Amino acid sequence: MKMLVVEDEQELAESITSYLTREGYRCEMAATFREADEKLYLYEYDCVIVDLTLPGGDGLDLIETLKKRIASTGIIIISARNALEDKIRGLEVGSDDYLTKPFHLSELNARVKSLIRRRNFGGHNEIRFREIEVHPHAHKVFVGGQETVLSRKEYDLLLYFLSNLDVALTKASIAEHLWGDNIDSADSLDMVYSHIKNLRRKLVEKGSGDYIRSIYGIGYKFGPQ
Amino acid sequence: MRLLEKTNRIYLAFSLSLYIVTAIAFYGIIKWLIYEEVESRLLVEKRDFLVYVHHYTWKDNSYFVENKIEVEPGTQPKDFREHFKDTLIQDRYTKEWIPFRQLTFYTPIQQETKRVAIRKSLIQSYRLIEVITLTMATVLGLLLIGTFWFQDRLSGRLWQPFYETLARIKRFDLSSGKALHLEKPEIIEFRELNEVLQKMAEQLLHDYTTLKEFTENASHELQTPLALINAKVEQLIQSEQLTEDQTRWIQTIYDASRRMSRLNQGLLLLAKIENRQFTSPQEIDLSRELHEKFADMEELFTHKGIRIEQETASPFVVSLPAILADSLLGNLVSNALKHNMPGGYIRVESSADELLIRNSGPTLNNEPDVLFSRFKKEETGSDSAGLGLAIVKQICDSYGLAIRYTENKGEHTFRLARKEA
Asked: Which chain B residues are Cβ-neighbours of A198 within 8 angstroms?
């Protein structure tokens, strides 16, 4: 899986790249409009992450040119501009997702995975982790072949964990993933806790291992013990 | 009062008083002239009479014309001086009272002192005065009306460029980004005014655009470093060898950067609403939007043990950009939730004219007046930025809505209504 990260802030680009590399993607970086334009012309990528405000040009133009050449490339916009018009224009020129800075790397990762799932298999693929199996198209979860019924938020939570295996996730990033960023933090953090408690109980009840670990002061991690 | 109306009024008052003074003076002068004439005639007749009585004998019937001369015996009182006076005498035939001017003096006739009154009818003179005064009044009046009309038309035409400029300035809308175009009238003052205004509008437009760009740039410039902090913190927490202290510090850094980001976004939103950078408002039923919002946040209410009651007598429809409607309700709901208590409630009542959001909760520490000010927080050091209600207020102010807060025995009510025009 080949990806291109177009971001002029070097350090941020490196953070994204190293996070995604850990997830098993081959990542390249471009810091200017020209550099990105060149790379997009020379190589083919499965997914491109584009910042809108670039030295030398507008990221939207980049997307437009790319979409005309290769329509199958997945595109995620990362931008500091939180304007509705930008989001609409972004979708119009063919991007798949829009993340407003600052964002969580785990959130970006989850969006990338979801995008790739949609692109490659039209959503008809299963996510497996040991005895846990998720059918995203049907919104169903099986543990050892046995269905377990989760609420919508619990399902979203599980998917978020499975997208970020063995990664420490902050409570805030989980809360924002589940409820969007307008939520008041003090309450949502409590709710994250209760949702995680329920999810863990439902999974363990059906005979799954206990994969959710709490990390003191930070959040949670989902992965093999 | 309009300028033209004002000048017209002053002009009218001035010319009317001038008109009255002129008319009175005119009347006085004519009257004086005529009296002068009549009196000099009377003096001449007195001389004739004296010459006559000196040469001839005076009999009562000597002088035929009725009431012309009256001779009576009498003694001259002390300090008597011959004098003129007005008098009315009845006509013998028509029984009409007729005004006369009369000269009275004493003179000896045939060794006997007589009181003599010589009279002259004023009836003709009075008619003359009347006719002349009336004619003059009419002419002056017509002149007055004429000049008034002319003046009115003239100043209306003279001020026309000014009113045109005024109308264009009123239509001028900064956020539309269109420059202000003013004509070049031939009157120097107005042309200069237009030039100055045009220059100011250009400057304003330029500053406004710069400000807008600054807003966007500030957003970009601030959000990117924040994104960087977030990203690095996320990478840092993946490390397994953190001590408890280090974890706590990282958590603090992380929380602070998130707070800063929210603050920044809130301020940018406020600036954008103030600058009217949201266009295309649409008709939105706030009560239905609110219903959807409650459904979306259901778990949050259940978690805090808060009851939701919604009573929709009729939808409350307003004209707002969709994104602002969402922000408005989001902030109100989150406020109602934040300042609630376990086992409390949020009740929404909607009618065609207003939307009421009531919630239970402890009494406020802050004054209700400062509730909508920026950075006024109920609890110091709380995680909130203190911008939520300021944003609500700004949206209301910018889109013709009014928001009011009242508290009654632990029930807090926000009343949203359309502003009366």
From this structure: none
Q: Tell me if chain B has a CB within 8 Å of the CB of A189.
A: no
| Last residue within a domain, chosen from A67, A92, A121 | A121
Q: Which domain holds residue B63?
A: 3-155
CA-based nearest residue to B38, from B84, B90, B74, B97: B84
Q: Are residues B383 and B370 in the same domain?
A: yes
Q: How far apart are CA A160 and CA A177, in angstroms?
A: 8
pLDDT tens column, A60-91: 999 999 988 888 889 999 987 767 777 888 88
| pLDDT tens-digit readout, B244-289 | 888 888 888 988 888 888 888 888 888 778 777 776 788 999 988 8
Average pLDDT over residues A166-185: 79
- Chain A CB within 8 Å of residue B376 CB: no
Chain B residues lying within 8 Å of A77, measured CB to CB:
none
* Residues of A whose CB is below 8 A from B226: 101-102
Task: Single out the residue of B227, B224, B216 nearest to residue B271, CA to CA.
Answer: B216
Q: Write out the two tokens for B233.
A: 């913190």
Element (H, E) at B107: strand B97-109
Sign of CA dihedral B71, B74, B79, B85: negative
Nearest CA in chain A to B338: A184
ipTM of this model? 0.81
Say whether residue A193 is in contact with chain B using an 8 A CB cutoff. Answer: no
User: In sequence order, what are the beta bridge partners of B284?
Assistant: B318
Residue B421: predicted pLDDT: 59
Residue B162 included in any domain: no
Mutation for A interface: B275, B297, B299, most A CBs within 10 A: B299
A131 in the same domain as A37:
no
Same domain, A19 and A73: yes
Q: How many structural domains comprise chain A?
A: 2
Q: How far apart are the CA of B242 and the nearest CA of chain A, in angstroms?
A: 10
| B chain contacts of residue A216, beta-carbon cutoff 8 Å | 244, 247
CATH of the domain at B332: 3.30.565.10
Residue B148, burial from CB neighbour count under 10 angstroms (0-12, 13-18, 19+): middle
Peptide bond just before B73 cis, omega within 30 deg = no
Domain final residue pick, B155, B183, B214: B155
DSSP string for residues in A106-164: HHHHHHHHHHHHHHHHTT---EEETTEEEETTTTEEEETTEEE---HHHHHHHHHHHHT
B248 interfacial to chain A (CB closer than 8 Å): yes
Mean predicted confidence (pLDDT) in B155-161: 87
Verify whether the Cβ–Cβ distance A15 to B232 is below 8 Å: yes
Q: How far off is chain B from A69, nearest CA to CA, in Å? A: 29
d(CA B223, CA A99): 12
Contact A191 B299 (CB under 8 A): yes
Q: Under a CB-based contact definition with an 8 Å cutoff, are residues B114 and B74 in contact?
A: yes
Q: What residues of chain B lie within 8 A of the CB of A168, using their CB?
A: 237-238
Which residues form the domain of A7? Answer: 2-121
A19 Cβ under 8 Å from any chain B Cβ: yes
- How confident is the model at residue B6, as a pLDDT? 86
Report which of B357, B282, B285, B348 is spatially closest to residue B316, judged by C-alpha positions: B285
Of B249, B277, B305, the last residue of a domain is B277
CA distance B164 to chain A (A): 36
